[in-house]
Design a protein that fits this description.
10 strands; 6-stranded mixed β-sheet; single chain; 2 domains; 7 helices; Rossmann fold
């Protein structure tokens, strides 16, 4: 399977008043087309910086980022993004918010086709009947569902998600994991998910990349061998528990706490 994303020897530092702050150091990650890659690591290790580099919003100091065999040199319309804050436009309805990327990347697309595409996705995520509501009229979980629809409405090559469920309560978060699973089955896409939730990484991911402490390198890679049609109950199975224990151990090592007992 060909890689859609190739991060090759990426090194990056932020410029501060006290001097350079190294964030990434010779980072190497490859994600095959159609795969779901979860990225975990200690807080502040550069996970969000990684998403901006993939999206072309920043350029690395050294190394290269490639998408579909093309070097990333700037923002690309073939990338969709979802964040912890849904950042929906309050003056637009949910339907109008979801349609927005199509207005930008496909201005010649007939309005009825844009609306049909958006309505299809909204129905898939359980928002049928809410398409004409304003964001303030929806719960946090519902707004995040709309944000996911907006991120994939234009059928991007890659979806980047930076802690999209981090601000939600546990039950809503798990419900959205299942929504994400169903969206992938119906709308195949390549995805990079940044998360602090190890259960989330195992439930959604095909691979989990563990980053070291700052400046981050790829410390470990876990292949998730659970079935694609996994349910939440599978997280309690021995296989999933073994994966979670492995990831916790790797995070402790990344935090410099190897050998602690818990």
């Amino acid at each position: 399977m060909d890689n859609l994303i190739d991060i090759k020897g990426v090194t990056h530092a932020y410029r501060t008043k006290s001097g350079p702050l190294p964030v990434l150091d010779d980072l190497n990650i490859s994600v095959p087309e159609g795969e779901f890659a979860a990225v975990v690591g200690p807080s502040g290790c550069g996970k969000s910086t990684l998403t901006r580099l993939i999206a072309g919003l920043m350029k690395p100091d050294r190394g290269e980022v490639w998408l579909h065999g093309e070097r990333v040199t700037g923002p690309r319309r073939t990338v969709g993004m979802a964040f912890q804050n849904p950042v929906l436009l309050e003056w637009r309805t949910i339907l109008q918010n979801v349609i927005l990327p199509l207005e930008i990347v496909a201005p010649g697309m007939p309005r009825r086709d844009r609306e049909a595409r958006a309505l299809h996705l909204l129905e898939m995520v359980g928002l049928k009947g809410f398409e004409h509501k304003r964001p303030s009229e929806l719960s946090g979980g519902m707004r995040q569902r709309a944000s996911l629809c907006r991120a994939i409405v234009h059928k991007p090559d890659v979806l980047i998600m930076d802690e999209p469920f981090g601000a939600l309560d546990a039950f809503t978060r798990e419900d959205l994991w299942q929504t994400m699973r169903d969206l992938r089955a119906a709308e195949p896409f390549t995805c990079v998910l940044i998360t602090h939730d190890l259960r989330e990484s195992v439930f959604l991911g095909d691979q989990v990349f563990v980053l070291s402490g700052r400046p981050a390198r790829t410390q470990a890679v876990l292949d998730v061998t659970l079935p694609a049609d996994r349910t939440l109950d599978i997280l309690f199975e021995p296989e999933a528990q073994d994966m979670l224990h492995y990831l916790r151990d790797q995070i402790r090592i990344a935090q410099g706490r190897d050998g602690e007992t818990h």
